[in-house]
Write a sequence for this structure.
């Protein structure tokens, strides 16, 4: 299976409240981005990774990748856009594979097992995403701040990444989305707009996206928990 990975990493992350872009923040001694990249760089199905970064950060990212031993022929850089959607589209154009995974730069805890299950599903359907059932009761609220209705929790899932697609399908979805000026918070929305059925693969609650300062605290706890479990089993993180 020939798989390319697109990782949009051109965001600033205003909600993190840091002067440093959140993908470069430290997690247990290494930048979050490096920990995320290692997951895919070590997966046997992944042929190459395209990293979309801000133009002014490209030189610094090249140096960072070199320091951590990444092959420049395997981890490719491209110019990111103002919005995530544009960054993914630019990265997608550089993918040379039948299948593509799109993953958030600041989700450093996705597992190899999750990726395996997602790749199996996408070969059957052409589009598949990771998600987990919502734990909390969810209310639909009016602009004025009043509850309009309570949504049926048993049918609600919180979407994660990576998301997996046929490259040809996702290219068409992004092209038509750009043409129609259709805003999308994830790539599955663009596939859905084509009428594509997207398969949901159950993910892991630990597959956290680092968005706010509180998430960094949770990330450190997840890292320590996994490190402890790996030490006990004799494997490495």
């Amino acid at each position: 299976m020939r798989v390319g990975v697109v990782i949009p990493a051109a965001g600033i992350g205003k909600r993190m409240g840091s002067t440093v872009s959140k993908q470069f923040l430290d997690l247990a001694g290494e930048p979050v981005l490096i920990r995320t990249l290692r997951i895919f760089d070590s997966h046997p199905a992944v042929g190459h990774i395209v990293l979309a970064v801000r133009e002014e950060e490209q030189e610094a990212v090249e140096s960072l990748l070199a320091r951590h031993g990444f092959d420049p022929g395997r981890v490719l850089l491209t110019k990111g856009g103002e919005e995530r959607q544009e960054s993914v589209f630019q990265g997608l154009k550089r993918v040379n594979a039948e299948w593509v995974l799109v993953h958030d730069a600041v989700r450093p805890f996705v597992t190899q097992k999750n990726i395996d299950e997602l790749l199996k599903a996408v070969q059957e359907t052409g589009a598949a995403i990771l998600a987990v059932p919502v734990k909390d009761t969810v209310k639909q609220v009016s602009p004025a701040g009043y509850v309009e209705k309570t949504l049926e929790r048993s049918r609600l899932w919180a979407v994660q990444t990576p998301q997996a697609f046929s490259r040809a399908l996702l290219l068409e979805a992004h092209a038509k989305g750009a043409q129609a000026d259709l805003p999308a918070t994830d790539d599955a929305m663009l596939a859905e707009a084509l009428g594509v059925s997207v398969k949901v693969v159950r993910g892991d609650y630990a597959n956290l996206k680092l968005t706010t300062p509180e998430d960094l605290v949770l990330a450190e706890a997840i890292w320590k928990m996994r490190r402890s479990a790996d030490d006990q089993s004799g494997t490495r993180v």
User: Anything to note?
Assistant: The longest strand covers residues 157-166.
